Input
Amino acid sequence: MPAQSDDTVLSRRDDLRNVAIVAHVDHGKTTLVDAMLWQSGAFSAHQKEQGDVNDLVMDWMDLEREKGITILAKNTAVKYGDTTINIIDTPGHADFGGEVERGLSMVDGVLLLVDASEGPLPQTRFVLRKALEAKLPVILVVNKVDRPDSRIAEVVDEAYELFLDLDADEHQIEFPIVYASAKAGRASLERPANASLPDSEDLKPLFDAILETIPAPRYDPSVPLQAHVTNLDASPYLGRLALCRVHNGTIKKGQQAAWCRADGSIERVKITELLMTDALERRPVESAGPGDIIAIAGIPEITIGETLADPDDPRPLPVITVDEPSISMTIGINTSPLAGESGKKLTARLVKSRLDAELVGNVSIRVLNTERPDTWEVQGRGELQLAVLVEIMRREGFELTVGKPQVVTREIDGKVHEPMERLTIDIPEDYLGVVTQLMALRKGRMEQMVNHGTGWVRMEYLVPARGLIGFRTEFLTDTRGTGLLHHVFEKYEPWHGELRTRPTGSLVADRRGPTTGFALANLQERGVMFVGPGTEVYEGMIVGENSRSDDMDVNPTKEKKLTNMRQSSGDVLVPLIPYRQMSMEQALEFCREDECIEVTPATVRIRKVVLSSHEREKTRGRRKWANPPA
Output
């Protein structure tokens, strides 16, 4: 909210509350919003009977439903008595932290959800730090209290420790605690026993806590219109929609307003349509006042962080700032021999315009030019954020070449600094030695280790961000799929020197053609295959992982020579080990510096940056000549 002078008498709107729900990934934010919508009467009896309402209604993107995560911050509104509660549902992954920061700029308080078993995790720290910096009041919601392994008292103590760790002041640390089971739609102010439901039958205690703790929007009646653009959306009928929080004054449909642009210029515009959220729908309204979260149409060029003000007395609000990116990757057109087989959007012009369009609505990414006219460097918060962008483009029909993720370094006091991540690992005790060894190879520093006495250990590390690129797959393999890991950006530290990369090499196809079962049966002894029989391959495409550290050129298209001797059925049937099918995130993790991935709507292939084996050999020879062994 804009700063007001101390002697100004502020008015307040008691019929309105604006609150954001923040938490670590999978702690139940979207499920809680579902329960609040159901209990506030947002769905009609007819919708309930017909079964027209999905679970997790706020996660409406296909990708969100497939991955089971929230990617975009979205807002809804529920009625509780005479009060409207605007709720912002935010993502739980640190990679989408830009969405969280934008969401916090629209609200007057936050609900901090913490899992009753897992407790505060790295993203909990990230979102809470942002809320405390913005001086927002916090309600702690201990969710999933009915989990069989819940440990409610310990989790509340951990939450208090986290507040103290983040230098919360005495007002911020006196927060109410609500115990909830979002799935059951129940909440209580009384602490239930572990693994039991709250004593209240509904979420009334939570709604009451919101009304008591979250302040009503305050505004200065003497200040003219100020509405801050915090998000963008699009409508097939109205074009670009700007989602705004009205800080002062009143905005009306059809009125003239001053559009205060990010470059400092001011332009007169007309508000052609004014919409407000009611449950899951946007409804046209004639006017909106201070504290309202609205969507306006009529300004096709408007972007995040700009201000709509009074045309006679324009007073722009400060532009929203978000944390700097820490990971980058190159995205360019598909240059493989199989380009154009499944995608429709292949040219550099189309790729560049799509990346520019992403910049408009996504404030936490950057797009930079490279020395090649058909390739761009895209910087973001993490691998997942960039992988989601590539996946969305792939579904839109693009064919792309995507490089290995790299960290974004900074020069501070003449020294190169790299981003550090705070990593939290939950593993069974048996794997303690294995994981400690993995982290030592990645220059990780252990900060804390807690044994809960349940057979599980929690460890906290500070580790260079580049050490975590490709770490998840190896970690899950070594812990037999039982380990949990979460990480969030912490700070920059001086460069930690060379890290060990992938210990294995690649099996690289040396010619184009369809693979054969006969060739793959011989190659599978060399390592793990990524392709099955009948797959079209080309020179430079990676068809498997070599068990040794060096790359090997292989011929996966070799056929069995035919003779006039009669074959037994044992010669015809070739026993093949099932090949490993790589998702896009796994392929990005697998890549080395001289490798990249080819992404098309139909498939994901890993390939060498230089396809010709002859050219690769020449490059390797030059490198050896330039750096002779000691």
In short: The chain has a mean pLDDT of 84.
